[in-house]
Amino acid sequence: MSRRKTERQLNLVICLLSTRRHLTAQEIRRTVYGYAEADSEQAFKRMFERDKRELRDSGIPIQVGTGDAISGEEGYRISRADYELPEIELLPDEAVVLGLAARAWRHASLGEAAANALFKLRSAGVPVDTEAAPGLTPAMRTDESAFGPVWQAVRDRRPIAFDYRKPGQSEPERREVEPWGIVNLRGHWYVVGHDRLRDARRVFRLGRIRGEVEVLRGGPDVVVPEGVDLRSVAAGHRAEPEATATVRVRTDTAHALRRGALRVVPGEREGPDGGWDALTVPYTDVPDLVEHVASYGANAVIVEPAEARAAVVEHLSATADADVPAHDPVPAEAAAPGGGPARGPRSADQLRRLLMLVPYALGRDVRVPEVAEHFGLTEKQVVADLSLLWMCGLPGYTPGDLIDVDLDAARETGEIIIGNADTLAQPLRLTADEAASLVVGLSLLEALPEAEGLESGALKRVSEKLRTAAGTALGSLADSVQVRLEDSGDEQVEQTRRRCAEALESGQRLHLRYLSGYLDQVTERDVDPMGLVVQDGHTFLEGYCRLREDVRLFRLDRVLDLTVLPYPAEVPEGVGRRDLSGGLLQLSDRDALVTLDLESSARWVTEDYVCESTAELPGGGVRAVLRTPAPAWVVRLALRLGPRGRITAPPALAEQARAEAHRTLELYRSA
Questions:
Q1: Given the DSSP bridges, would you call strands 418-419 and 300-304 parallel, antiparallel or unpaired?
Q2: Most CB atoms within 10 A, among 68, 103, 267, 494?
Q3: Nearest partner of 206 among 146, 138, 125, 123, judged by Cα
Q4: What angle do CA 542, 546, 550 make, to 5 degrees?
Q5: How far apart, in whole angstroms, are the C-alpha atoms of residue 439 and residue 460?
Q6: Residue 333 has what DSSP assignment?
Q7: 460: which residues sit within 8 A by CB, 6+ positions away?
Q8: Strands (DSSP E) along 124-197, which ranges?
Q9: CA–centroid distance for 550 within its chain
Q10: Burial class of 278 by CB neighbour count within 10 A (0 to 12, 13 to 18, 19+)
């Protein structure tokens, strides 16, 4: 966007802040520098309307009132009480937790809102520390395209309409919902609210919304029932186990099944087909039990109940009898890339910087390098902003009206000298999105034992200060967006997490017995810890793995045993932490490509796993292409899916799934 547009919008802000009454559009056209370039009344109206919209989108509260008492024509001004950020002071421990809260959104759609909030706080001289506690990386992702409009609807208290495909349905259904809030549960985002068409409370996973979310503008605002607990409503979808099954598993296999068992009875270690143990496994319904046990192939057999045993045979027969393709199917066409939230125009970014730079530089002895570092800019950007600021000021635009900037000093010595800018002396107030992004980030930290290393009251104090600084703009938005850490409350995981944090602090190496996320396999790992990452509802240890000779992420609920070794961690020189901007899953071109044809009831695979591409199949099915470093994992997935999905490429992998299904069925038939 042009430099002239930024100058015009900054001049408009200065004019509306300095006036004591509402100015009509025509008065603004005559007095604000930049509008004279509109060569017609229609061109001016379009320009002025666009400027107002963009300023409001940037959080600048333009009021509408009576500009002309005789004609009744509306006018505009900016109230300082609504514009200016109230004074806020942070103690050192509060600055640490606020920096951590902002980092939680670094790679998500609210990352820009969190960054803008920090800019504004820094412009007021608030010492936000975004580099503190480097060993902890809280992170939230909002990959679902529906997140943006649903967040907006929750913020504005507006109903929404969308097409939603439930698991097992071939076609989506239209839903009209009064959203009460958004919840992150088990690494996925859900909207909780009242379904108007069904007149009932419902929970919808955002990743299952198809197409665009329509925010309905007409009618009354959404009213959230008093006392509703969003997380409890969302978590209520998980049914508690109601029955138990007896499952025989081979020695040193089915490790995840063992961890969830109520009882493990060791069997004979010797025998013609190896040793077997007996597990008592809780389950809610037979289909879920069947899929879980079937995924282990010939390493697990259901003994009872009889109906579950018969169901496994039927389930695996579909895989055993499936035709192995003679060649690879036609590749799926790449799905349309998910568009993230559109960034604002470049002039809007520069305008926000100017409105933050002036309050920070006024009355302080600062230089260009310091300002660049403080706001995360380049020195060239700072000098360019100062040169634009020099052209702006109060209507009249005489030397006494313009902002005074010593550009020679900025270019030659780096010294920043600004004068005659009292109108912009106070930083801009936080918007609802900006304040909420930080408050929700703080709520994620509350669930982390690692945050106990900070003073216990810091989280609460910062949250209260942010709510005061945002004022009525925040409303109840921050309380309508909740995050739940999936492994919080798991005593074993919390103990593992604390020991990892202690090893990080003391700089000691760890030894792990670790259950692979891809294979039913436990490995021994020596790991030099580098940090803790919280993402997708789980906590991960990030460290240099001596076995793999590379940086790896270890999910703590898969750590079977942890020992702090009595010698120091030594991360090789030049080895750094992973770039998580693309997510936790780090794939490469060397990984195998696998094609799956899925029934409509198995579309969850495309929601839970990263797909290279997807394509619709007749009858509501989908063809998915996945990239994986462990093709054997896809064999387990195929066994789990049974009649609901099959491997179609590569043929050799499809044959492995078919052969494993045959081996498993022989065990059932021989018993």
A1: unpaired
A2: 103
A3: 146
A4: 55
A5: 10
A6: P
A7: none
A8: 136-138, 160-164, 173-185, 188-195
A9: 26
A10: middle
Question: In this model, does residue 1 exceed pLDDT 50?
Answer: no
Q: Which amino acid is at 483?
A: V
Q: Long-range contacts: 290-293, Cβ < 8 Å, 24+?
A: 290/315, 290/642, 291/315, 291/640, 291/641, 291/642, 292/257, 292/640, 293/245, 293/247, 293/257
Question: How do the residues of the chain divide into helix, strand and coil, expressed in percent and rounded to 5?
Answer: 40, 25, 35
For β-strands 173-185 and 481-483, DSSP reports them as parallel
pLDDT level of residue 456 (50, 70, 90 thresholds): low
Residue-level pLDDT at 319: 93
Rg (CA), the chain: 30
* Rounded (5°) CA angle 352-356-358: 120
Reduced to 3 states, what is the DSSP secondary structure of residue 210? strand
Classify residue 28 by its DSSP letter. H
Closest CA to 561 of 624, 495, 488: 495
Is the N-terminal amide bond of 305 cis, ω within 30° of 0?
yes
Q: Is the peptide bond before 329 cis (omega within 30 degrees of 0)?
A: no
Q: What pLDDT, on a 0 to 100 scale, did the predictor assign at position 335?
A: 42
Q: What is the pLDDT of residue 441?
A: 79
Taken in order 64, 70, 73, 75, the sign of the CA dihedral is negative
* Residue type (1 letter), 291: E
DSSP secondary structure code for residue 105 in this structure = T
pLDDT tens, residue by residue, 304-346: 999 999 999 999 999 999 887 765 665 554 443 333 333 433 5
Specify which residues 597 forms β-bridges with: 623, 646
Determine whether 559 is exposed, middle or buried from the number of CB atoms within 10 Å of its CB (0-12, 13-18, 19+): buried
pLDDT per position as a tens digit, 139-153: 677 778 898 899 889
What's the sign of the alpha-carbon dihedral 571, 576, 577, 578? negative
pLDDT tens-digit map of 272-311: 666 899 999 998 888 889 999 999 999 999 999 999 999 9
